[in-house]
Amino acid sequence: MFRRRGSGATAVAEAVEPDALVLDGVGRSYRRGAVALEPVDLAVPRGRFLAVMGPSGSGKSTLLQCAAGLDRPTSGTVRIGGVAIAPLGEAALTRLRRERVGFVFQAHNLVPSLSVLENVALPLLLGGVTDDAGRALRALDSVGLGERGTDRPAELSGGQQQRVAIARALVTSPEVVFADEPTGALDPATAQDVLALLRQAVDRDGHTVVMVTHDPAAAAWADEALFLAEGRIATRLTRPDSAQVHGIMRNLGRRAA
Prior knowledge:
About 35% of the residues lie in helices and about 25% in strands. The protein is α/β, with parallel strands linked by helices. It has a single domain (about 15-255), classed as P-loop containing nucleotide triphosphate hydrolases (Rossmann fold), CATH 3.40.50. The strands form 3 sheets. The protein has a 6-stranded mixed β-sheet, sandwiched between helices. Strands 4-3-6-7 form a 4-stranded antiparallel β-sheet. A two-stranded antiparallel ribbon has the order 1-2.
């Protein structure tokens, strides 16, 4: 089965493979020989929720940045939806991130001068889609904020702002949503609401989520937890629960000390 998606340099006929994200020997080194990420092999199937965890300095943020095309690895290959990102120039890579990748950050990163609905629609507008206002409204409805579209971000609570950020991440129907500590600034109850929305995006709509988190309770919402230590994959846990995750993180912390 083949499909064509995107435009320009990213508009290529490709096999629809079962994995939304593939890292093949992906590593990242910096000047003076500092290694942030040893070569990693990872495949994330479509419709999967993966939590990435590890002690400070373990390489989890580097993994996310390389996987999302925010940083170029020094070795290996990243494929998003079957497209290898290494050969892409900066313009094509920007287009691929805009069309195929969604981002949710701890700090929301909403534009304060735009309305809530305009924030959600921003990826569509940047991609040249100007005649589909209903798409943004449906995304906002899906996170329970359809009636707040005319408000400014400052009029919303922190949890509501993160809901808007999730709607914005999903509005382009991306191959992968990358969430970097999405609940780090939220109280436990609000964090649970946000995680439930990410879980819903996977279970109901078939999205793929890769989430970096330090919180065992957050990781328990995922299908699988991947643990990094010293730039390497230390272990993996299917159907994680918070107690298991806490125990693994405690042991990894002792090793890193």
